[in-house]
Design goal:
The chain has about 475 residues and is an alpha/beta fold. The chain is built from 14 helices and 22 strands. It folds into three domains: about 210 residues, FAD/NAD(P)-binding domain (3-Layer(bba) Sandwich), CATH 3.50.50; about 110 residues, 3-Layer(bba) Sandwich (FAD/NAD(P)-binding domain); about 110 residues, FAD/NAD-linked reductase, C-terminal dimerisation domain (Enolase-like, domain 1, 2-Layer Sandwich), CATH 3.30.390.
Length: about 475
């Protein structure tokens, strides 16, 4: 039974919130977590990271069976898409993960306060009319979809990322507004399943925040897979009709108006901090011009005893960033110390092949006037990649020209999201490209591409 008073109350049970709650409980604090959904896990586990990865994995296997296995001597006949069954797989993965969080709460004696949380004082949270006291209140309410002023999302024909996970049939034509991570991932899912997908991006490149060379090569690979791209283009209107959606697009700078039509339009133009209805204005918690909670050292807000982590504060909106912040904050509240190097938070795009990065891009280094060396190595020259028929892409390592310290790593290729972990881990300890090059990597593995890229920094790659 829930108490009326706790050491810590966390508002939100996404990756940042539930991990923070568990870690605080492990450290001996009495903890409650407020969650208004029927299941724990927040956006990530319910309608974001986890269900999208389930559909990405399933659609990859479908496309592999349909288009690629014959190259490996495997003939597939009678292949059929069971979309309802694929969605059931996705739902079962979500259920297993969310139920797992509920089990972990019980194991660690974290109370789940079911309902909507409102902060009514610096030490009080009200949940559906009942007040609870806390020494520390942690805001971990995450983020929500950003829409476009002229486009109404109905989650049927004009959908957000949430609606794109629930389509009951494969659209013949789909337009994705936004060439960022979420748009490319979900666009890839439906393209593999048979949709004609066009990505409309306002910037002059997809993945505009990532290394430009990697982004350019990623677009080439995805174009070969069948996706179409309209860059430096904006959607000025999207209206639903009996048949689908009629769109008007034009150049980013205006002019050259063009008409398009689609069965489904997916709007993926970003996310915003979810701070509505928390009562922040009443208790005086400051937010910035983007609605994010403003924090200082130790994730403290300007109100004593109230903290914030994850998507709701500044920084990349990534589940693993939120998790690390949750752990560090819990440990700080227990009198320990914590550290996060925000330059070393990896980013991954779960298309196929995957895209991953950590550290600085070439563009950032040039802007800062830092002299650097580049080492690149293609998957095409790797024996394991050839054996897997997964030869698209390359690894790029950027190292300081004077000290050889690794400043960044960018990967387009099979399992890039896993491969980036080696470099991120070594960068945490100030690695040089020579350190990576001198580390023995198992053969034959994709990780050898990372080693060869490190060797290439010094111009001595062995297999090219």
């Amino acid at each position: 039974m829930a108490s009326d008073s706790y050491d810590v109350i966390v508002i939100g049970s996404g990756p940042g919130g539930y991990v923070c709650a568990i870690r605080a409980a492990q450290l001996g604090m009495t903890v409650a977590c407020v969650e208004k959904r029927e299941t724990l896990g927040g956006t990530c586990l319910n309608i974001g990271c986890i269900p999208s990865k389930a559909l990405l994995a399933a659609s990859e296997k479908y496309e592999e069976a349909d288009k690629h296995l014959d190259k490996m001597g495997i003939k597939v006949s009678g292949l059929k898409l069971d979309l309802k069954g694929m969605m059931a797989h996705k739902d079962s993965v979500v259920d297993a993960n969310t139920q797992g969080i509920e089990f972990l709460f019980k194991k660690n004696k974290v109370d789940w306060l079911k309902g909507t949380g409102v902060i009514t004082a610096k030490d009080t949270v009200e949940v559906d009319g009942k007040s609870y006291k806390a020494k520390h209140i942690i805001i971990a309410t995450g983020s929500d979809v950003v829409g476009l002023p002229s486009i109404e999302i109905d989650e049927k024909k004009i959908v957000s990322s949430e609606g794109a996970l629930e389509l009951s049939k494969v659209p013949k034509d789909m337009v994705v507004i936004g060439g960022g991570v979420i748009g490319l991932e979900l666009g890839s899912v439906w393209q593999r399943l048979g949709a004609n997908v066009t990505v409309v991006e306002f910037a002059d490149a997809i993945l505009p925040a990532m290394d430009k060379e990697i982004a350019k090569e990623t677009q080439k690979v995805m174009k070969r897979q069948g996706l179409k791209f309209k860059l430096s283009t904006k959607v000025t209107s999207a209206k639903t009709t009996a048949k689908g959606v009629d769109l008007t697009i034009e150049g980013a700078a205006g002019g050259n108006e063009e008409k398009m039509s689609a069965d489904v339009v997916l709007v993926c133009v970003g996310r915003k901090a979810y701070t509505e209805s928390l009562g922040l204005d009443k208790v005086g918690v400051k937010t910035d011009d983007r609605g994010r909670v403003m924090t200082g050292d130790g994730f403290k807000t300007n109100v004593d005893g109230i903290y914030a982590i994850g998507d709701v504060i500044a920084g990349p909106m990534l589940a693993h960033k939120a998790e690390d912040e949750g752990v560090v904050l819990a440990e700080m509240l227990a009198g320990q110390t914590g550290h996060i190097d925000y330059n070393l938070i990896p980013g991954v795009v779960y298309t196929w092949p995957e895209v991953a990065e950590v550290g600085q891009t070439e563009e950032a280094l040039k802007k800062e006037g830092i002299k650097y060396k580049v080492g690149k190595f293609p998957f095409m020259a790797n024996g394991r990649a050839r054996a897997m028929n997964a030869t698209d892409g390359f690894v790029k390592i950027l190292a300081d020209a004077r000290t050889d310290k690794v400043l960044g790593c960018h990967i387009l290729g099979a399992d890039a999201g896993t491969l980036i972990a080696e470099v991120a881990g070594m960068m945490e300890f100030g690695t040089s490209s020579e350190d990576i090059a001198r580390t023995c990597h198992a053969h034959p593995t994709l990780s050898e591409v990372v080693k060869e890229a490190a060797l290439a920094v010094d111009g001595r790659a062995l297999h090219i």
